[in-house]
Each structure stands twice: as structure tokens, then as C-alpha cells.
């Protein structure tokens, strides 16, 4: 978790994480469903409920989809806050590095 939080803290952006019961639910659904390619409507509703509760409770303005399986179930259009898809961010950075590599 610190891997994702450090860059935000160093740029004075406050980070909050789901509470323990929310983290347990998210972890269970990732392991039991998403990692096995299972995308359930009820799970999506549960994830969106957690996010919406965090918007109200914590005033979050964005969400980091820090697990590569999360974009299977959470889409940008599902939310009215910023969504950071870490898999997409990593892929774009890798492509940028490949195409700007001048060592050839």
C-alpha cells in the first residue's frame, strides 16, 4: 500500500483507504471472483457503494484502482470522481519509454 501512497504524500495529496471491513470485502471479491475472471453485478454495486461512502465520509475526489483486476469492474463512467487505473498508467509509461529510447 505504501508503494501507491508515497508519491501522493510527497506532492501534498492526502490519501485515505477503505476501512478494515471494506478492505476485507474488496480483497475477498478480488481473490474469489475477479482473479478468476468472474464479474458479478452485485460485486460492482458493493464496490461502488464503498466508493460512494468514502466520498461522503472522507470527501475523496479520486480513486486509485491499485489492483489490475479492478478496471474489470469499475469504469470511469461509473463515477463522478477521478479514476486512476494503475495498469493503464504503467502501460502508457512503458510505451513512452520504449518509443523515446534513443539507444538504438
Automatic annotation (TrEMBL):
<dbReference type="GO" id="GO:0047661">
    <property type="term" value="F:amino-acid racemase activity"/>
</dbReference>
<dbReference type="InterPro" id="IPR001920">
    <property type="entry name" value="Asp/Glu_race"/>
</dbReference>
<dbReference type="InterPro" id="IPR033134">
    <property type="entry name" value="Asp/Glu_racemase_AS_2"/>
</dbReference>
<dbReference type="InterPro" id="IPR015942">
    <property type="entry name" value="Asp/Glu/hydantoin_racemase"/>
</dbReference>
<dbReference type="Pfam" id="PF01177">
    <property type="entry name" value="Asp_Glu_race"/>
</dbReference>
<protein>
    <submittedName>
        <fullName>Aspartate racemase</fullName>
    </submittedName>
</protein>
Amino acid at each position: 500500500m505504501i508503494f501507491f501512497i508515497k508519491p501522493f504524500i510527497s506532492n501534498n495529496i492526502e490519501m485515505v483507504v477503505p476501512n478494515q471491513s471494506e478492505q476485507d470485502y474488496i480483497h475477498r471479491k478480488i481473490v474469489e471472483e475477479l482473479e478468476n475472471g468472474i464479474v458479478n453485478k452485485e460485486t460492482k454495486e458493493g464496490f461502488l457503494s464503498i466508493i460512494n461512502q468514502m466520498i461522503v465520509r472522507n470527501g475523496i475526489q479520486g480513486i486509485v484502482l491499485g489492483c489490475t483486476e479492478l478496471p474489470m469492474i469499475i469504469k470511469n463512467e461509473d463515477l463522478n470522481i477521478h479514476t486512476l487505473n494503475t495498469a493503464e498508467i504503467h502501460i502508457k509509461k512503458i510505451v513512452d519509454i520504449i518509443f523515446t529510447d534513443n539507444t538504438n
